[in-house]
Model the fold of this input.
Amino acid sequence: MPIPATRNGKAMKTVSALQLLPIAAGLVLVAPAGAQEAKLSISRADCLRAVHHQPAAGVAYKPETEIRGRKFAPADVDSGLKIDLPEVFEFNVTRDVNYYLGKPEKDAEAAEAAANAAKKAQEAADQAETAASAAESLASRSQALVAIEDASAAVSALSDERDALLAAYNSNPKNNANKAKYEAADAALTSAQNTLTTAETAYAAGTYDTATSTAATAVSTVTDAGVSVSASSATSTAAVSSSSSAASSARAAADSADGSVNSATKANETASAASNAQSVAAEAAVIAADEAVQGAQTLYDTAVAAYKADPGNATKRSAVETASTALTSAETALSSAQSAAASGDATTALAQAESAVEAAADAGYAEDADVTALRTTASDLASTASTAGTEATAASTADTEAKAAYKEAASVPNMQLNLGTVRFNVKTGELFFNGKPMNGAQSEEVLAKCRELLGRRR
Done:
């Protein structure tokens, strides 16, 4: 509350408790030698710094009043926004108790764990995309390889049919019907051969979808010529179907991993993409093993035919026995590869495919370069899928750790300690904390001293 200072009984200036606070820190308590009580030392200059000048009544500005004292209407009549503020403001002084219980540190650890989980999840999703793309490529390549095998078998069948019609025509050159059949078969064979060549060229260029569709056209040309054909191998056809399905699943999982914002979902979908990619690699191994079995079977059939033509030839009999053993071993390896592929075990399937190739080689089988390349690509995919699986596991672990960190952070209670209430009177300048004045006893002594100093004559 302002305290008037007088001089000769006249009001001069006023001093408030709050005005004295800035100089309170500079006051000196002086205690003479041997004294029992310290005295406050304050100068007149100190007091003058704490007061404010009060101008004469005729000098101070008066709203809506001209220089001669006549009143006039305010410029903002009924146009200003008026807000009635309270004279007293109160607010609580609080402190978070959880600050002392390690809450900030736990929150920071949880945030760091979440960031790590998000990072791992994205790395996993990126690897899922790599695995899915490689799986799609290998599945397409496997399908094209088998499609060309089927087309080759169909063209071979049409060639045999054309040769038979040629023989019939040569036996009776005057038979126009035989001539027409032969010419039609020969034209169809030429067309199918050209189409097959185009498919093989597309395969070599890596445009596997084109190779597959073109090979299918070659087969259609053969069937349109009246020659009945079937898949060259039911085993390889089934493997292609499974491979295509797994590749589609890998793609769906990779897209889901990429599109999700949930770390756990990214991890799970990456694991799915990796698993399906492994299946694609395993099915390619089955195709390679089946090729070895087909090769061994052909060698065995050839050896048997040669032995039948010369049953007394011990060498030819030995060749039959060798081919039979090779064929049996290759078939066993193929069966093992199929079992591994059924469980998505690409590593075992590839190992069994290699065993089938080695067994068939004992009978004279030489793996085609395209099939060798297929196995190599399958091995690369298996490695890529394995990496994706590892990334998925790491992402899942990081997500679990992040959830645990957040759970631990949440276990720290959110509590606040209310230290007290501050009450401030805008009109009087009074300031209280928990009902006690914040200016204290020393400020009252300063006020008394300043009254005394400012009341003296200069």
